[in-house]
Amino acid sequence: MNINPLSLLNDQHALFFTLFAVKQDTEYEYRNLFTVIRNRIDIPCSNWRRMSHKRGVVCFNACLPREKGEKVIEQITKNQSFVIKEGGNDHILHFGKLMHRQPVFIPNKFQSSIDNGWWPGTLQHGFWLNQWYEINTTYTSYYTAPTKKLIRRVTGFDLDALPDLWNTILHITSFEEEYSPRLSFNSDTKKVSFLLHGDVPEKDHRVMIHLWETDETFYGELLDLPAGTEYTHINAPFSPKKLGYTLYRKEQEKWMMIASEDRVLIKEIHMNMGIIQGKLEVKKGGDEDTTETHDIVSYSPITARKNEKDNPWVIAEEERKRKNEAFELYRLGSIFIRNKGNESRNEINSIIEYIYDNAYQFIYIWDPYIKESVLPDLIVKALSMPSINIRLLMSEHGEGQINNPKNIRIDDIQYFPRCREIYQYLQQHNDKTLRNLKIRNWFRKSAQAFHDRFILTEKGVWHLGSSLADIGNYHSTIYRLPGQLAAQVKQEFEKAWEGDFGELKPSGFSLFPELKCVSNEKGCDD
Amino acid sequence: MSELYNNMIHLILKIIDEEYIKYSERFFDDLEHVKYEVGNWIENQIKKEKENQPEIKRYLQLIPYVNEQLLRADLNFEEGMRIFQNIIREGNWLLEGKYGLFMSRRLSNLLQIFYDFYPERYITLCNQEKNAFWLFPILDEVRKENPSNSPFLHIGKLNPSLKGICAGFVWNHFIQNNKDNTVFCLNNVKIALSRNELWIFLGKVIENLLLKVFPSMSFVRNNRDIKMKKEILYQIISWIIEELGKEKWGREEIQSYFLQSLSGTVNRESWLGALLIANKLEEIGQDQMKENALLLREEVIEQYPHLWDKGHSKQYFFSGEQTLVLVDELVNAFYKIFQETSVSNLEKIEKVSSPQKLWYLRDVHQYSDYLAERKLTTVHYLLCVKLALKIKRKDRNGSWKQLENNILQLCKQFDASPTDGSEELIFHELIADFGELWQECQGEKQIIARLIQNLPDAESAVFLFKHLSLENKDQFRSLLRNKIVKYFEELRDKRKMSLAKVLYSIQEWKLCIWVLDRLNCKNNHNELSLYYQLYVSSALLLIPTLKEEQRIRLLQKALSVLDRYRTQFPYVYEELYFVMRGYVVGLLFDLGQIDEAVFCHEYYAIKQIRAEKRKESLSKVKAEMFIRAVDMTDKEEDIEELEKYLSEIENSEEMKDMHILMKAWVYGKRRNEKMKRDCLEKLTQFKEQLVKNKEVIPKPLHRLLREAYGAN
């Protein structure tokens, strides 16, 4: 089935072109950065206009009658370049090697990209997207903040959030200016009304209305709006928490989707309004003249509409949702464990073992309180998997002064009890080749250099509520960091390993494989 | 000399620590000889006392933003006035003679003596010290029952900041709440103030009055107060014209003093005051006055559309009611200046966004700008439409087409109802006026159809009908009906009620009943009261056009609506309720839907009602019911009661026809054929309306109608 959204338009529509391009070395030649074509009505047609912006970015726009516009689209996509006559010159635009993507419909769903405001603000009812994209593009240097801002200001597209749209040609079909669907729930009559507002064309429409009672359950009805009928309403079987519709129009004996939208209904509004109840006088010091007065304000929540008493299944679903989320987190490796003595200690140890087991490239442990007790598991891992890279970053400040912090000796270790234990423990394994295990200690004079604890592997980054040394002795949480956050922590670990703790300027030494100073200040005697 | 001096000082020391008393003649004569020395002494005492005034400091702490400025103010006139306003708002200082609370008795008495005997030196001292609280002796004198103009002469010598404070006081005391003293006060203020200061004073006063005439929150509306403020406003305007109108006004003084201080705190809608002055100037029509009027208008128009700018931000503020009046006046001003070319001049103004630009603002997510611009655009087109109406341009080409299209485009911007009250008010006015313009220019039918299709809700579509002729209404009624049906289900009950109200106001009673039948009215007194009023009066107005069975159904429904109201609020006494009930019951009785006992019961109930308001209507209802009751029993009753009712409605123009008809019935009963004939003859002039309303006239009178007009 080949859908051409252009077939949805009638003769009233004009096509509005906005092209962003960047100047090439040759004069009057440009490369496409971002092109968008939208249908408009009731707008005077105009020829090509050019506006130059900073850094060689140029914006062309024109409003062409539909037929002429269609021809331009055809030319651009066929020849992959296009000549614009403007100001007596021929401007040549290159679009690179273009690929066509089959038209798709983008609905406005709750918390989707339309809802988040990344597309132009008038596309609230969903739209058809026809896209041509350039393959092997190399113009990333123009994806700069000012260019993004310019595009946002002129077209409403947020290319920061939609980076896949760079170097593409978009053709968007929507009907905002002609007519728009309106779906609403009337809480007085408990009716849902759907209507087509504006200049509705004499065509058959069909609408699928969805009413969500909870996130998991909904009621839907398919309703016909034959040509000439512009509204319909149904009795709502319950007060919906979300409303949605998908609207189809009959075009050449085929039902075409033209709008689709979801809306969450606001059932309650809480407002915090302060009411001044009196004045508080505060006398300062012995001098009577200096008193401060403060308003005594009481805040009481004002509820605009009392929440209906939730049905048991609604409450049950909330519970289910929480469980589902917890389950998903558990699958990912996040868990909260109640302290049940040995049982919980074993459980959490098994989780940490599981994390270790699944790591094949590296295990970094970033924990100030590392003790000798955490080592056995890791040594086994290190020995059994020579290719793995294990690093332990700890922070123990000494109990006494090191003679010379820039030149640490065996004798100095006595001031660091945990380090000493670790050192001694590792000496027992002197005979084995443990080249893939490294331990460093960064510390300040009388304080640690860091506080939070993490386990980092190539599979993910986990944040631990308590130290590995005594995890499971209390209520314990292990939380797997999502997305960007994990990458950030890993980056920071690399910096911390080298002693970069931001504002703090700690000293440090490497405990294993050899005892030596690693302070980033100059002058380690080695 | 020295002994006299000592005696005087001794006496004054006694006086100043006591309750302040008037001095004897003797005291006055003696003082002459040592006046200068005693003056020095008093001045020194005052300066000594001034150090010791903790009360004022404590008081000032209550007014954070005025604070120490009052004690050593280096302000200009305008700030002085503003500060006085702030004190008024905060502490009611000076108004109730509270100044005694703020300084020691000794100091206040010293000041009073000093002012009484050494006014010149007092003024100099005040100017040096710049203490606002020290002005009370002057202000006290101003406040006297029959003030002379002497305190005003003193005020004139004060420095600007103190002068400002005095002016603020005078304004508050005389103009704020009392319309009798306005002229006297303005005359004196004119003496005291320089010309520029006078303009500032007038600007501030007018701005403040306009604020009261158009209160921004409707729930603080006090109609009596508004009426009085309006009167004062017009008094001031007339005074300005009389006293200043004949002179030539400088552009500079108008621009930087008058208009500057006429600007409100939020926007410059109060420049309406300047346009009102211009109107009045032109009305009188001397050459210089006309010139001044032109000057004012030019100055105001120059700032269009920035009159609504909110401070320095890109936002606008429209208060609603005042905006509409301002637009009306702007129309007047534009027309006076540009005459026939006004609309094209106005359309050239580029500072207003076109509807196309509004799409753009939405696209790029500038929603707050969008909403602000949309309102400004609405106001702008309202101005254009009103101007076009004023010029009554008949040519149906060029910019009229453009205007038509732009308004259609603007309507498309409202994809839901307007966002707030002021926008709604302005938008509805625009739609109503556009309807009128369309009719005036005999526009194409298709435009109205498209407009109805694109209006955001049913209510605004109703406004389109507001000024249409009956013929045009008939033509588009089905469109309106469809519009209402289409958008009805999404309306909350409250909106449905206001829709019904609007429908009633444009005399679409059938649709009004249609809406009321479908809305679920809550048992809240105001709502239910409005509901029965709308329902029953629409029903009564609709009756003459209906068939009998429809009539019965409608009246029965109306009666049940009335019953519901009575059951819910049995102790609420409203004359209107009984008037309506009387009509409905009477008509149902005529139609044979109520039996005699019930009717009599209702009649006696209504008979008991003693009216405060709506006396005439109630008497008419009682009279009609009386006639039915007598006709029913067919007994010779005491007709005097009926005559009493009839005498009460004798003077009403509206009820003249019914009065004569009922009078004829009385003569008929009394077998006074001659008088009866006379009455019937008089009825010929009302033939049309009586025949039309035949169905709402009590049945026993139908016979008389037949006698008067023949068989039909």
Please supply descriptive tags for the structure shown above.
heterodimer; A: alpha+beta; nine-stranded mixed β-sheet; 19% helix; 38% strand; disordered C terminus; B: 712 residues; mainly alpha; globular
Summarize the structure.
The complex is a heterodimer of chains A (526) and B (712). Chain A contains 7 helices and 27 strands. Chain A is α+β, with helices and mostly antiparallel strands.
What does this structure look like?
- The complex is a heterodimer of chains A (526) and B (712).
- Chain A is an alpha+beta fold.
- Chain A is built from 7 helices and 27 strands.
- Chain A has helices spanning 66-79, 145-155, 312-332, 342-357, 375-384, 417-428, 483-497, and strands spanning 14-23, 29-40, 46-52, 57-65, 81-86, 89-94, 98-106, 127-134, 168-173, 179-186, 191-198, 205-212, 218-225, 231-235, 242-251, 254-264, 270-283, 291-303, 335-337, 362-366, 389-394, 437-443, 453-457, 460-464, 476-480, 507-512, 516-517.
- In chain A, strands 1, 2, 3, 4, 5, 6, 7, 8 and 9 form a 9-stranded mixed sheet that branches. A 9-stranded mixed sheet of chain A has the order 19-25-24-23-20-21-22-26-27, sandwiched between helices. A 4-stranded antiparallel sheet of chain A has the order 13-12-15-16, with no helix packed on it.
- The radius of gyration of chain A is 33 Å and the shape is extended.
- Chain A starts with 13 loop residues before the first strand and ends in a 9-residue tail after the last strand.
- The model of chain A is unreliable at 522-526 (pLDDT under 50).
- Chain B is an all-alpha fold and 712 residues long.
- Chain B contains 36 helices and no strands.
- Chain B has helices at residues 2-17, 25-50, 54-61, 77-91, 105-117, 119-129, 136-142, 150-157, 160-175, 182-192, 195-213, 223-244, 251-262, 272-284, 287-302, 321-338, 342-347, 355-363, 367-391, 399-413, 421-440, 445-454, 458-464, 470-488, 493-505, 509-517, 525-542, 548-568, 575-590, 596-607, 615-633, 640-648, 656-669, 673-682, 687-692, 699-709.
- The longest helix of chain B is centred in the N-terminal third of the chain and has 26 residues, at 25-50.
- The A-B interface holds A 40, 42-43, 117, 120-122, 152-156, 176-177, 180, 182, 184, 186-189, 191, 193, 195, 197-200, 230-231, 233, 289, 291, 293 and B 57, 61, 356, 359, 362-365, 367, 405, 409, 412, 415-416, 450, 453-454, 456, 485-487, 489-493, 520.
